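Sample intake sheet
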Amino acid sequence: NACFRQAQRHAAFKQASRVRMVAALRSLQADHPAIGDIRGRGAMIAIELVGKDGTTPDPALTSAVAARCHADGVLVLPAGSYGNVLRFLPPLVISDDLLDDALDVLAKALT
């Protein structure tokens, strides 16, 4: 029973951080049209970076954003068939403050 309660508690953390992160990414998307799509499964969330036309993959921007994030201590995973997707996999028990810090680093990297 204790294991089951612990698993439920971690699932709630995962869902809460995912909901917060997707909402924050949607807010960033409104300010940064280079974010073409936000998607994910489970705890993994991804953003697709596109060119000014809103559809053309932008792997150069993706590499630059990933490098800026890494330089500021946030690990993002470049991915995608065209190299224009950044994946995020925050820890299940990430604090709100730490998640906000990571999102601030991403916002800075996008500018």
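Comment: The chain has a mean pLDDT of 88. Strands lie at 35-41, 44-49, 77-79, 85-88.
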